[in-house]
């Protein structure tokens, strides 16, 4: 460990940002013209457009279209340094951040700290489910899920028994939020449209897609009307929606769920399981909360002040998926707006000597929620305005392409969507064995390691940091 914390040359205010998701990237960009130096630390080399991960998982988009090099995203900004590293410690009293950077560990001093490390998948205390039911939070997750889906269809072609084929062609998605709904709709479209003429020994439309959730409706944040509309559309596409049901077991060959009203258990034989039922904030939040005497919530989110600081630390900000304030949802707009807000108040402090007690409170502007249910069909809720169908789909396309980083990514993504609208073919269906088995192999290697602290690169890669 470096004895003297590293800082940029000169004496300018040093801002350290942990995480290069929406919150971290937008904060860094808004500090471009400020009289500060910025160090952004991220455990991957890319900024990820997470809302489109399901399209990588189902072969609509390639990884390059939703993931941009952090360095390229911030190129031309001469007051920022990009560090690829895994933050292992934060000391809010010493104002230092320690990061493992592959072969060595470095410690950075800061004047202001922005923690935007995101969130990973939560299995609600059943972490052993993860081996058989990956979440969808990273590029690795998306590529693994794609490999699992495609491999299931390929193995069904050579299945020796009807029971084996049925198990292979049963896809279970746990969690009926936007990710679960969008995944279910896309897998149904793959079975009924994209793969309709690709196999000789079975009819792909025989595939069974099951969407399970413990709540009484799909898409709870969208309200009952849109939730019912989305459910009807999914069922038209052949998706079986199971509500008021909690998953109690996941193993290699099945999923078991319990009806919350009758307590009756049902087991579904299935090879492919996907988990989208909950999130767990980066553990860095709790690390900070413990130091400042604030109690983190069960999901790891940290209660923050009106200016998004934590406890009595006026220079430590927690934003995006990691913070808890006013029941704000874990969506991209919250991360973007909190990142922009924190950049603004740091600039005001540095350039106009605005004291912490004079800061304006953060106010969230709700730009709505939206989800694609099927091709040409989306549900959109903006305040009291509800839009469905083709118009909703166009709105979804426009909003999502506008937030992609880079003109090339915007252009290529629009071309991909246009091609899929006209043709059933999907052009990103290639898979590899490493995609299929890499995550579980790393988990097993981590379990075998005698000194886990010496192998931080084998940790779960969920989250932005």
Automatic annotation (TrEMBL):
It catalyses: a quinone + NADH + H(+) = a quinol + NAD(+). Keywords: FAD, Flavoprotein, Membrane, NAD, Oxidoreductase, Transmembrane, Transmembrane helix. Its EC number is 1.6.5.9. Residues 14-339 form the FAD/NAD(P)-binding domain. SUPFAM superfamilies: FAD/NAD(P)-binding domain. InterPro entries: FAD/NAD-bd_sf, FAD/NAD-binding_dom, NDH-2. It is an enzyme of class 1 (oxidoreductase). It comes from the Bacteria. It holds the Pfam family Pyr_redox_2. Coiled coil: none annotated. The chain crosses the membrane at residues 390-407. The keyword Transmembrane applies. GO terms for molecular function: NADH dehydrogenase (quinone) (non-electrogenic) activity. The keyword Oxidoreductase applies. Belongs to the NADH dehydrogenase family. This is NADH:ubiquinone reductase (non-electrogenic). It comes from Corynebacterium sanguinis. The lineage of its organism: Bacteria, Bacillati, Actinomycetota, Actinomycetes, Mycobacteriales.
């Amino acid at each position: 460990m470096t004895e003297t914390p590293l800082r940029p040359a000169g004496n300018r205010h040093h801002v350290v940002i942990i995480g290069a998701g929406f919150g971290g990237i937008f904060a860094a960009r808004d500090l471009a013209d400020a009289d500060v130096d910025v160090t952004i630390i991220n455990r991957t080399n890319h900024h990820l457009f997470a809302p489109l991960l399901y399209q990588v998982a189902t072969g609509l988009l390639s990884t390059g279209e939703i993931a941009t090099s952090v360095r390229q995203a911030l190129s031309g900004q001469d007051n920022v340094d990009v560090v690829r590293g895994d933050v292992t410690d934060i000391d809010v009293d010493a104002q230092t951040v320690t990061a493992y950077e592959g072969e060595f560990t470095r410690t950075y001093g800061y004047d202001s700290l922005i923690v935007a490390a995101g969130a990973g998948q939560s299995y609600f205390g059943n972490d052993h489910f993860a081996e058989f039911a990956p979440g969808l939070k990273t590029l690795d997750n998306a590529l693994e899920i794609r490999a699992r889906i495609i491999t299931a269809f390929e193995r069904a072609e050579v299945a020796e028994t009807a029971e084996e084929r049925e198990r292979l062609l049963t896809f279970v998605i746990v969690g009926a939020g936007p990710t679960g709904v969008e995944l279910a709709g896309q897998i149904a479209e793959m079975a009924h449209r994209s793969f309709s003429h690709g196999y000789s020994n079975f009819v792909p439309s025989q595939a069974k897609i099951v969407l399970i959730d413990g709540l009484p409706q799909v898409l709870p944040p969208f309200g009952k009307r849109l939730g019912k509309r989305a459910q009807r559309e999914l069922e038209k596409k052949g998706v079986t929606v199971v509500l008021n049901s909690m998953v109690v077991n996941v193993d290699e060959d099945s999923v078991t769920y319990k009806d919350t009203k009758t307590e009756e258990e049902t087991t579904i034989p299935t090879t492919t399981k996907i988990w989208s039922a909950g999130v767990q904030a980066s553990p860095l939040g709790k690390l900070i909360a413990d130091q400042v005497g604030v109690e983190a919530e069960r999901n790891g989110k940290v209660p923050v002040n009106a200016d998004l600081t934590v406890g009595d630390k006026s220079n430590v900000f927690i934003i995006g998926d990691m913070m808890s304030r006013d029941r704000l949802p874990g969506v991209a707009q919250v991360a973007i707006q909190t990142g922009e807000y924190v950049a603004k108040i740091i600039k005001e402090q540095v350039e106009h000597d605005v004291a912490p007690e004079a800061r304006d409170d953060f106010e969230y502007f709700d730009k709505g929620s939206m989800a694609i249910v099927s091709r040409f069909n989306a549900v959109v809720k903006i305040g009291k305005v509800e839009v469905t169908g083709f118009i909703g789909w166009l709105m979804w396309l426009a909003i999502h392409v506008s937030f992609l980083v880079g003109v090339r990514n915007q252009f290529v993504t629009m071309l991909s969507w246009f091609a899929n609208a006209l043709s059933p073919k999907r052009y990103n269906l290639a898979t590899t064995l490493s995609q299929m088995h890499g995550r579980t192999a790393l988990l097993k290697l981590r379990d075998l390691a005698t000194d886990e602290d010496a192998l931080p690169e084998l940790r779960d890669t969920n989250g932005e940091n």
